[in-house]
Write a structure and sequence with these properties.
Distance between the termini: 50 Å
Helix content: 40-55%
Number of helices: 16
Radius of gyration: 27 Å
Strand order of the largest sheet: 1-3-4-5-6-7-8-9
Length: 434
């Protein structure tokens, strides 16, 4: 959007309400085109916000099925896009949806331009559109920020990661381990997102909040790109929203920071001076902010308490000394034989990782009943199929599991591994002599 000022055009396209409500200035052609496109593009990306929190997004996602399959078949020779977003936000479904969204925005802009030829500006619509973008971006960033502040997004360095060879880590696994190691850095990164998001809820602090988020999200986008984290589309969208909000002040920022020119103070008149509007606005905003903060703090404290709670003797890294399938000992050369098992806690999530030297790596959830001595393994990749195992612990270093995995009866004897890792034992030093 900076090109609007550089080319000599006043950037009223994204100007705030003082121009929107007190002026009947005429927007030029570029300003109108730009607003129409970004309005359609962002609305298609975030709809049905904010109603989605009440009614869900399922109907809207289902409505994309035909356009995505049609576009995939027509433009990319993909007969059917059956795999939907599944924790990865960069599936074929997401990329084709982005492609269709851009196409619809361009077509919609062309139709809007052809039909609406007499309007001087879109000042009022632009004002409320900015409000929607501010609150969507603010709520999203606060959510991500608190997930870091309470160590729930990256969690902690698990035994599985400690015993995994460096070269076997995915780029994303390496990044997650790097972030999980330092609670201080996680807290700092999350605090920036929370602060920037919180400042977007107020007109007078929108600029500084947007600038903070541009710095934060630029780093996030680059990490997602260079460490192959499948949140590239969403993070780029959030960054573009921050840039959109800052674009209104492009000329003021350039004058102040680069051209050493005085910048006039900005006024922030309300859309309406009616008492019902003023008090209703204050009440709704207070309710939203208070509820949002209390919700995330309550969830964060709850997950943090679980993360820091003592672990039973069941948790830990195990070497599988004996592996019987259907009462027959399975040799180490069997590529399906389990060799190591890690009963872990990552953040507020319990998980079991199973590995061997032949490349087997599988992570599953689990639940346990201490009274009945039953461990239920939950295979996330097989539609949450559950496998109950009975377990006994003859001593604190031995675990015996018996149960069925798929159609096979398994009996496993596991022994705990003990190793001191420099990564988790060195600690912090103000003075380092070497």
């Amino acid at each position: 959007m900076c090109f609007l000022w550089i080319s000599g055009v006043q950037p009223t396209l994204f100007s705030p309400m003082e121009q929107a409500l007190t002026s009947s200035s005429k927007w030029n052609f570029v300003e109108k085109i730009g607003f129409r496109f970004f309005f359609l593009f962002f609305i298609l990306q975030i709809f049905p916000f904010p109603l989605g929190y009440l009614i869900g997004n399922g109907f809207y996602n289902d409505a994309w099925t035909w356009p995505i399959n049609w576009a995939g078949n027509t433009f990319f020779d993909i007969p059917e896009v059956s795999l939907r977003p599944n924790g990865s936000g960069d599936t074929r479904w997401n990329w084709i949806q982005l492609f269709v969204t851009i196409g619809l925005s361009i077509i919609g802009t062309a139709i809007w331009t052809a039909v609406d030829t007499k309007r001087l500006n879109y000042s009022k619509l632009s004002y409320w559109f900015r409000v929607i973008i501010r609150f969507y971006l603010g709520i999203t960033m606060i959510s991500y920020g608190f997930a870091k502040v309470f160590f729930n997004q990256f969690g902690n360095v698990t035994d599985y990661r400690l015993y995994q060879e460096f070269g076997d880590m995915s780029p994303m696994g390496l990044l997650w381990t790097f972030m999980a190691f330092s609670k201080g850095y996680q807290f700092f990164a999350g605090l920036g997102e929370v602060l920037g998001g919180f400042l977007l809820f107020f007109r007078r602090t929108t600029l500084v909040g947007s600038l903070i988020l541009i710095g934060v999200m630029s780093n996030v986008v680059l990490l997602n790109l260079f460490y192959d984290v499948p949140v590239k589309i969403l993070s780029t969208l959030l960054l573009s929203m921050g840039l959109y909000l800052v674009a209104a002040d492009t000329k003021r920022l350039l004058n102040f920071f680069f051209l050493n020119r005085p910048v006039p103070a900005r006024t922030y008149p309300l859309y309406s001076t009616e008492k019902w509007f003023i008090w209703g606005r204050i009440a709704l905003k207070t309710l939203l902010i208070t509820g949002l903060l209390l919700l995330h703090i309550w969830q964060g404290v709850d997950s943090l308490q679980y993360l820091e709670s003592p672990k039973s003797a069941l948790y830990g890294p195990y070497q599988i000394k004996q592996f019987q399938r259907n009462k027959v000992d399975v040799p180490l050369t069997d590529t399906l034989r389990w060799e190591r098992m890690f009963v872990d806690r990552r953040g507020s999530t319990d998980m079991i990782a199973i590995t061997n030297q032949h490349g087997l790596q599988q992570r599953i959830g689990f639940e346990r009943d201490e009274k009945k001595k039953i461990l239920v393994l939950n295979d996330w990749l097989a539609n949450d199929k559950k496998y109950p195992f009975t377990y006994t612990q003859p001593d604190s270093n031995t675990l015996i599991l018996k149960g069925k995995w798929n159609s096979d009866s398994l009996c496993l004897e596991l022994h705990k591994m003990h190793k001191k890792f420099l990564l988790t034992s060195r600690g912090f030093h103000w003075v380092s002599e070497q």
